Amino acid sequence: MKRLVFAITGLLQLGSVTALAIPQNTRFFCEGYPASPLCVNQVTVCTTCHSQAPNLNPYGQDLRTELIKFPDFDRKPAAFQKYLRPVMLTVEPLDSDADGAGNGLEIDAGTGPGDATHKPGQDALLVFDGELALRRIGLLFCGSSPSSEELQKQREAVDPILKKQWRQDYLAQCLRSDYWKKEALQRLADDRIRPNLAIGAQGDPFVIGDYMYDYRLFAYILSEGHDARDLLLAQYHINEKGQKVEGPIASHSVPGKFVVGNGQPLQIDRRYGMLTTQWFISLNTMFAEIPRNTAAQSYRSYLGLDIAKSEGLYPIEHEPKDYDNKGVKQPACAFCHSTLDPLSYAFTPYAGISVPGYQVGTYMPDRTEYESLGYIFGQPVANLGEWARVAAESDAFKQNLALMFFQFSIGHAPRTSQQRTDFAQLWQNLDEDGYAADRLLHRLVETLTFAGRISDAE
Ligand SMILES: [Ca+2]
Ligand SMILES: [Ca+2]
Questions:
Q1: Ligand in closest contact with the CA of 96
Q2: How much is the pLDDT for 408?
Q3: Which ligand is nearest to the CA of 112?
Q4: Confidence of residue 122 (pLDDT cuts 50, 70, 90)
Q5: Least distant ligand from the CA of 102
Q6: Are 392 and 232 in contact (CB under 8 A)?
Q7: Average pLDDT of the residues in 436-449
């Protein structure tokens, strides 16, 4: 909430008119260039067009020169939406920053079209270092360094195909380890699940959900070749023994505790992976009639779009309706809530805490009149099933998944053009991997981003 208050004051200080124009340009750019490495999570950074906003870099200036040729260009979001795309095409052949590479080429390569210090093909010459790759695989995915014999084998072998085969076998072995499945992978889930000891399965006196189901489901879906889209689509759970359980799991009483829930009571045909576990619904929906927190946390965790940071805004006309009278219709609130409220409606039939007669996390369509009024990415969705399917097939889902593993392995989001190019390939080939996280990792460890060393060739 602190972050949210911060975001709101930030916006108010900028003044409402410019505030509306700004974040949307980062998205309009990526609607024109969805595959550009300059776009991560469907948005680019301000510095693609600005040196420091509102000052424009040479590329931004060329865009501006063309934009102001339209008499009705008034700098409002609708005007940017209408004219930015055609204007981007017009300036594609120019070399705005005069570094010798045309804007179009730079956008494809992920170097800045307005940044004279970067152009395609000019990164330091990197060579792949198999030994470095092996060390990093060990530390990241096995939790320990490879043995000195392994390293020596890698160093002394001459056949690059054989070397690669050993690396890949070593990685496969690490990805089957308890370290990966029960520790590292679960840490990647922490921000998404937001465990809270005081109210989890061991909570005292209230137990509102058992988040170990969430951890097990997350780790299961992202290992052993399973389809990562199950994060948003799975209709099963994984029990303490690691077995798949299809049917509902009843809560059980715990002496001395007040158990709101510690099972998975939801009917199978209304389950959508991580979005409908009992813990996720209890923690995020709590007592809300319009579960805004649940929708925002789903969008943030599995699509990488944080509405509190003005990301992923797709305002719906005549929204927010403010059915529950929270005052979100005011322009300063509608800026985000015209996206967030429609994003939340599909979650309304899932019982939060303390709905008389219903177990927390169950599906109760009578509770709501808003279920079918929802939207995601500007697309209408009749229920959470449609919401989840649109989300699971989106580029945002692929990018978020790839970014999670990229950040885990590299320590930060893509920065250099080599990193941007490797990242773009990682997420864009996820369909060919059958959305299997381990196949994505098998590709990641072979990139120059993962194990490139600056060549000291004479
Ligand atoms: Ca250039
Ligand atoms: Ca450049």
A1: 1
A2: 93
A3: 2
A4: low
A5: 1
A6: yes
A7: 97
Residue 18 predicted with pLDDT over 50 = no
Give the ranges where 124-229 is alpha helix by DSSP (H).
Answer: 130-137, 148-156, 160-175, 178, 185-193, 212-221
Instruction: Please name which ligand lies nearest the alpha carbon of 118.
Output: 2
Q: What is the pTM of this model?
A: 0.78
Alpha-carbon distance 337 to 341, whole Å? 5
Q: How far apart are the CA of 124 and the centre of ligand 2, in A?
A: 15
| Local structure of 258: helix, strand or coil | strand
Gap from CA of 102 to ligand 1 centroid (Å): 5
Q: Model confidence over 149-191: pLDDT tens digits?
A: 888 888 888 888 999 999 999 999 999 999 999 999 999 999 9
Q: How many whole angstroms from 109 Cα to the centroid of ligand 1?
A: 11
Question: How far is the C-alpha of 170 from the C-alpha of 26, rounded, in Å?
Answer: 40
pLDDT tens digits, residue range 350-380?
Answer: 999 866 677 899 999 988 899 999 999 999 9
89 Cα–ligand 1 center, Å: 15
CA of 101 to the centre of ligand 2 (A): 7
Interval between CA 85 and ligand 1 midpoint (Å): 19
Report CA(30)–ligand 2 centroid distance (Å).
18
Ligand 1 centroid distance, CA of 46 (Å): 17
Residue closest to 79 by CA, chosen among 33, 34, 18, 8: 18
CA distance 115 to 96: 9
pLDDT at position 11:
35
Tell me the CA–centroid distance for residue 26 and ligand 1, in Å.
19
Per-residue pLDDT at 363: 95
Q: Provide the CB-side half-sphere exposure for 90 (13 A, CA).
A: 14
Output the CA 18–ligand 1 centroid distance in Å: 28
Ligand number nearest to the C-alpha of 97: 1
Distances (CA, A) of 443 to 31, 53, 281, 415, 448: 27, 37, 35, 19, 11
Coil, helix or strand at residue 237: strand
Q: How far is the CA of 119 from the centre of ligand 2 (A)?
A: 4
Q: What would the mean pLDDT of 99-110 be, rounded to a whole number?
A: 91
Centroid of ligand 1 to alpha carbon of 32 (angstroms): 18
C-alpha dist (Å) from residue 413 to 31, 122, 425: 20, 20, 14
Q: Is 369 exposed, middle or buried (0-12, 13-18, 19+ CB in 10 A)?
A: exposed
Q: Is 436 helix (H, G, I), strand (E, B) or coil?
A: strand
Percent of the chain at pLDDT > 70 equals: 93
DSSP string over 283-331: HHHTT-SS-HHHHHHHHHHHH---GGGT-S--PPTT----TT--STTSH
Q: Compute, in angstroms, the gap from residue 420 CA to the centroid of ligand 2.
A: 14
Question: Relative to the alpha carbon of 109, which ligand is closest?
Answer: 2
